[in-house]
Design goal:
O-methyltransferase that catalyzes the 2 O-methylation steps in the ubiquinone biosynthetic pathway. Keywords: Methyltransferase, S-adenosyl-L-methionine, Transferase, Ubiquinone biosynthesis. The chain has about 240 residues and is of the alpha/beta class. The protein has one domain: 3-Layer(aba) Sandwich (Rossmann fold), CATH 3.40.50. It contains 7 helices and 8 strands; from the N terminus they run ααβαβαββαβααβββ. An 8-stranded mixed β-sheet has the order 3-2-1-4-5-8-6-7. The chain is globular and about 45 Å long.
Length: about 240
Amino acid sequence: MSKASIVASEAAHFGGMAHDWWDPDGDSAMLHKLNPVRLQFIRDQIDQHFDADEHSLKALEGKSALDVGCGAGLLAEPLARLGADVTGLDAAPELIEAAKGHAAGQGLSIDYRAGELKTLEGSFDLVTCLEVIEHVAEPADFVAALEKRLAPGGLLIMSTPNRTEWSRFLTITLAEGMGKIPRGTHDYDQFIDPDAMRALLGAAGLEMVEVMGIAASPMKGLHLSEDLRLNYIFSARRA
């Protein structure tokens, strides 16, 4: 029997950030900086996988999308604007309430739910899970649960910090140490490197299709890169 993926302390930590999730200068400021970079990769993968028109404003029209660990909707809202029928799932009820309120203010219809991934029913053309797997109790069970939600021919996109000393330094020592990210957000022991991720995917019947690094530099800020040392984002499909 698969175990629960939610770690209560993690849900409480992120739930405590709900009050200013949409403030680009608040506790989630780093996510606001990260989101455009992730969206660049996601849009490219959508266009390739679904053979969509790269100039279309509704590339996900007629498709369903599930954003796992959706927070208060930083990714779910752009997916809805691309035309998808979006479901957002998060472990923290406080974040789901904030997400519902923000989406209503934007005139967006998104099905937000609080709870465990393994209790969710249905399948989705696109499943996204960004900066989440490093916070779950059982990564292997979690990836298997993601696979179960993927519709035939579906696309999975995930991102996570790499398990490197560079990632530990920038993410925990520097960013958390300087207050750019709330202290206690990350546990280096939970970081997963790309080879270990491929093994998790393979055990669930999935294969990694394309991977890009998310790097940081004084000149470019956060940006897509061949350098995977800090963070990486990837697409996957059934093998």
